[in-house]
Amino acid sequence: VIELETAGTKTDDPDDRPAVTADPDDDYLVSLAIAAQADALISGDRHLTTLVKPAVPVLTPRAFLNQLTPQTGR
Predict the structure, then answer these.
(1) Which residue spans within the chain are E strands per DSSP?
(2) Which residues neighbour 31 within 8 Å (Cβ) at sequence distance 6 or greater?
């Protein structure tokens, strides 16, 4: 298992936080993912998982784990 601190990239919160979600408290996550040029945003929050055409793909934790682990046909 790779530790997030070793494999991750630290990015400061961006100043610009455009309103893109139904919950204004979640907008910073989208802005941060964009600023960090993230491949995906991992969240179970429905305000994020239900975004239409998000700037960064939003995956639930289960969907993310499914991409990491090979399927065994179960």
Answers:
(1) 41-42, 58-59
(2) 13, 14, 16, 17, 18
Give me 27's structure tokens. 């907008």
Q: 72 is written with which tokens?
A: 């065994």
What is the per-residue pLDDT across 34-63, written as a single tens digit (0 to 9) for each?
999 999 999 999 999 999 999 999 999 999
Task: Say how far apart CA 66 and CA 13 lie, in whole Å.
Answer: 29
**Which SS3 state, helix, strand or coil, does residue 25 take?**
helix
The distance of Cα 23 from the centroid of its chain, to the nearest Å, equals 15
**The two three-digit tokens of residue 70, written as one number:** 């090979």
